[in-house]
């Protein structure tokens, strides 16, 4: 976590969900974008393809996940990838860092609600 | 509020605090940076000079605040500005929008905590 930043970065938030799916053995490159877009629809958040794929690429590059090709049957040959958890110790440390940043971010936003909408600040 | 964005923008968060100070009649251009930096120090957030002054400039440009010069006494002539609330109806509408975005942002972050750290999601 960088020092003195505002709130949690979108990239960290997306990675967290991807690691969760990888832990469950169901992180597929082609599906994760649509899954995340559907999952956050009710909260008005639609992650872009670019953000999702960059996050996935960083997870791979940093060793948090590994990937294996899966040959999909059908008229056209198409290579799918399944992503699996890589270095578990490293993943755990990363998740701990992200948790601290989530807690900090929620505290900042809740302070703003209290200060600006409860009519109590001096 | 733009559609499908992640969480609240730093600029909106800063403007909210500046409007609050302007409403109290104590928003001074030279002091607000230091005040905000001190106020969020405990939560690891140190807004930069650039972000703070851009936010202030946008508030002025959009008519949310107006400014008046104050001549500061001292050895050197220096012009200070005090910023006052401008169009109150517009400010109220803006604050309502920001409140909705704060609520939405907190809900997103809390969902991530629940999904990824409570060991309950499928």
UniProtKB/TrEMBL annotation, chains A, B:
InterPro entries registered for this protein in UniProt: RTP, WH-like_DNA-bd_sf, WH_DNA-bd_sf
Assembly description: Homodimer.
UniProt cross-references to SUPFAM superfamilies, sorted A to Z: Winged helix' DNA-binding domain
Official protein name in the record: Replication termination protein
Assigned keywords, A-Z: DNA-binding
Functional summary from the UniProt entry: Plays a role in DNA replication and termination (fork arrest mechanism). Two dimers of rtp bind to the two inverted repeat regions (IRI and IRII) present in the termination site. The binding of each dimer is centered on an 8 bp direct repeat.
Domain of life: Bacteria
């Amino acid at each position: 976590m960088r020092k003195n930043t505002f709130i949690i970065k979108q990239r960290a938030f997306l990675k967290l969900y991807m690691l969760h799916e990888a832990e469950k053995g169901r992180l597929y490159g082609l599906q994760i974008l649509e899954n995340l877009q559907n999952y956050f629809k009710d909260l008005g958040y639609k992650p872009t393809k670019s953000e999702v794929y960059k996050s996935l690429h960083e997870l791979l590059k940093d060793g948090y996940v590994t990937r294996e090709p899966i040959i999909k049957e059908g008229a056209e040959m198409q290579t799918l990838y399944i992503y699996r958890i890589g270095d578990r110790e490293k993943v755990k440390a990363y998740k701990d860092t992200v948790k601290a940043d989530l807690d900090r971010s929620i505290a900042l936003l809740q302070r703003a609600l209290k200060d600006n909408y409860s009519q109590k600040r001096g």
